[in-house]
Each structure stands twice: as structure tokens, then as C-alpha cells.
Amino acid sequence: MAIHDRVAGIQWEGDVFELVRKAGRSARRRASDRYWAARGRRPVTVGGVSVLFRLDDREDARFLRRFLDIEGRMLADLLAELRSDDVFWDVGAAGGFYTCFASAVLDDGRVIAFEPNPDVREILHRRLDSLGTAPRVFECALSDSTGTAALDNPARERDSWQGTPSLTTDPGAAAVSIETRAGDELVAAGEVPRPTVVKIDVEGAEPLVVEGLSESLAHEDCRLVYCEVHRESDQRRSPADYGSSPAAVEASLADLGFEIEHIEDRRAEYLIKAKKRPSGEV
């Protein structure tokens, strides 16, 4: 059975039973968000690692649920691979969920988070404070060089920047100036330990991170890289905006000694797991 529904100028066409199912799922999600928000805490276990998250309001509860829906698979894979002697870099930490879970496994000095967005960084610090953990947080973007850049989100206004801003050389009115650092320079200066496991989620600027961290990634101790790779789009930035491509990002990691595995496809982007090839393998 098909229906046509026009509400507030929007036309919808589809199967009425599917519409009912979607409405039911949406209602259950909203009820779950209200429940956990009222509790003020939500315990979450992923891959055998448990974290108790503080929830200040329903939006906090919704954000946590959506993170688990979207990122749960990659997070579980990462936690299964993480060892107690690893050094984990969370590049593009956003609200800090990966950092929180890694901090439940590793000592604080072995977890390094990078987040340039001033809005979500407030959430990151609040979340870490509530857990009583103190990993190192760099308030900058990892890139191919040290300097300054603009962080922009052309699809949103400045007062609703909970989205996915990107580095840009063509900033809009909502852009903010941020610091950029090359990962290899941080390691060479002794500011941070060299990573053994890296997660990269930087909204299209993946090639810049890889280039600026290439010496560390090539080191035999760096054994895993998880990376969200954006496909070219008119709506969001991708490696093409930085003179590269998804294929080139994968090729760069392969040249640095990694075997590439595609672990999830989300249409607009896909997730790769790059695992260091055993020494001597080509």
C-alpha cells in the first residue's frame, strides 16, 4: 500500500507499513533518550570495555545513542585490537567517545586527543572530567604543517556548530581561526609519544594528516590506522578539496607499509582499517 502525505509543504511517498515501523522506531528512540537523560547516567559496554557516561540533558543522550549507532562497529574493532602498551592518537576526537573508551583501557599518558573545534571541545573536556580521566588533549588540527588555518562549516551557522567543520582555504562567515600541527613535528619535539594505533576522522582532510604524520606511521611500532575516508561530494569536503583522492589516501598508507581493509561503507564515506604488514613483506 502506498500513501502520499503532504505536511508543511513536504511530500512523502512510500509504504504505509514501513512508515509505521519507522515511526515506532523513532518513538522508541525518543523514549530511550528521555529515560537515560532522566537517569543522568548511561553505562555503555563496547567490546567488553565499559564506560559510565554522564548525561546532562536529552540532547546528550541522543548524541551518545547516535554515536553508538554510527561508530559502534569501528569502535568495537579498535577496542578488540588495543593492547595495554599501545599509544592511541584520536585525531578528530570531537566529543571524545573514542578517547573515553581508550582511556578505560590505557593509562592517561598513552591516550592523545586532537580536536580543533572549540564547540565540541567543550563537550570533550566535560566528558573527560566526568570520567575522572586526564588524557592529553591538543586543541589543534593535525595537518601537513605547523601554522594556522580556518575551520569552516559552510552548511551551518556559527551558533549551531555541533556538526562537521573542515579545514579550508576559502572560509565562510562562520569560520574560526585554529592552530595546525604536523604530527611528526610533535613527536620529534618530544611533546608526545609516537602512536602505535591511530584513529583519523577529519572530514575530508585525511591526506593532510597522513602526510604530516608519515614518518611516525612508517615506523614499525605503528601497527594500526583506522580512517574515515570521504567520497567526493558537493555537500561535504573530501580529499579532492586538498588535492588528493580516496584512492590516494589508501595508496599513501600502503606505501607506508599497511595492508588496507574496507570495514564499513556509509555511502558518503567509508571506513578503512590499515594494518602494518609484517617486516620484510612487500
Structural overview:
The chain is built from eight helices and 15 strands. With 282 residues, it is of the alpha/beta class. The chain has two domains: 1-35, no CATH class; 71-276, Rossmann fold. The strands form four sheets. The protein has a seven-stranded mixed beta sheet, with helices on both faces. Strand 3 (41-46) and strand 4 (49-54) form a beta hairpin. It starts with a strand and ends in a 6-residue tail after the last strand. The model is unreliable at 1-10 and 157-162 (pLDDT under 50).
CATH domain fold name of the largest domain: Rossmann fold
Cα separation of the termini: 56 Å
Radius of gyration: 20 Å
The helicity comes to: 25-40%
Going by CATH, the architecture of the largest domain would be: 3-Layer(aba) Sandwich
Sketch the topology as an H/E string, one letter per element: EEHEEHEHEHEEEEEHEHHEHEE
Describe the strand arrangement of the main beta sheet, using strand numbers.
Answer: 7-6-5-12-13-15-14
Biggest β-sheet strands, sense, barrel: 7 strands, mixed
Classified in CATH, the superfamily of the largest domain is: Vaccinia Virus protein VP39
What is the mean pLDDT?
88
Assembly context of the chains: single chain
